[in-house]
Every structure is written in C-alpha cells, then in structure tokens.
Amino acid sequence: MVRLRRHRGAGVRGLGRAAAASLRLLAGDPEAPRRRIVVAVDVADKDAVADPDWGLDADAVGEVRIAGAVPLAKAAAVHADADDAEADVRAAADALGAADRGDDDARFVVDGAEDHELLWFGVQEIPGLLG
User: Fold this and answer.
1) Residues of 8-39 as b/e, b for ≥16 C-beta within 10 angstroms?
2) pLDDT one digit per residue (tens) for the chain, 131 residues
C-alpha cells in the first residue's frame, strides 16, 4: 500500500501533510537530495480509500490509501522546494528523529523547513526538476 495525501477538500493542509511525509522520507535516505517533493495525482474515487488504520483520527483527515502504483501520466502537478530551502530542509531531516522524541529545539528546526512553501510546477516541467 502507498500512502498518499488527497488534495481535494484538504487544500493547503493536505499539501503540508504531504510535505511533512516527504521530509520523513528524506530523513530515512541520507543520499537523497534535500528537497521535499509532492506529486499530486488524479485517481478515481473508488481507487482511493480512507486509511482504516487511522479511523476517525483528526490527524488523518485528507489521507487516503491506494493499492498499487500510480503511473506518472496521472500526475496533475508537482510541488517542490525552491533551491533556497535546501539548508533548512537538510537541517530538518537531520533533526526529525530528535523532534519525534520531544526535543523542542529539534522541533523548532523541523518547523523551519515548514516555513518554506512548496512551489507549483506543471507536469511538463518534471524533466527540468530531475535534471
């Protein structure tokens, strides 16, 4: 199962959650470029279901699960950090574990990455983002 953030109805809040999930992925891969990336995809309602593990938890609003991979052709847009966010995203990824354990200073560092809004890119711009 892949966990995705649903943007319809969730708006900016959903994008923020997806950015936080992207940061968590970066924290687990020290070799990855320090740039949060969120790909918004269009899937049929029947293919996106509420996560049964979260139930009615308020933190799960806007979160869905889908079974299987989503082809890149279903991408509607890409959201990514600007180059000037790299240092803050790097520091946030490094501090995430301590923040999860309740370290207030580390939480402040993680919040610093959240101060950077993700930029919107059309799907035709994906090759430029990869290059």
Assistant:
1) eebeeebbbbbbbbbbeebbeeeeeebbbbbb
2) 334 444 444 455 678 888 988 999 999 999 999 999 999 888 887 887 766 666 656 666 666 777 778 888 889 999 999 999 999 999 999 999 999 999 999 999 999 999 999 999 999 999 888 87
